[in-house]
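dumping this here before i forget
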Amino acid sequence: MAQTVVLKVGMSCEGCVGAVKRVLNKMEGVESYDVDIKEQKVTVIGNVQPEAVLQTVSKTGKKTAFWEAEPETKEAPAEATATPAEATATA
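structure:
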């Protein structure tokens, strides 16, 4: 079953991008991938295990970590401040 793995990878040049692409091309189970140097983001789709993708990309020597989902803590205060205002507006 295909799944999507998103990593944050420290890439500073096209050589870095090439190194990441080379290891992903050799990895079994990878159906497709996208390497975004500007966002420092690598998205891999395929029949792969997230930990295996992390380990494979780490072999390039680039700083690699799982991409953090948008932190809910940033959204929560905005919702918390919006909720009383909405309550006041409707009251």
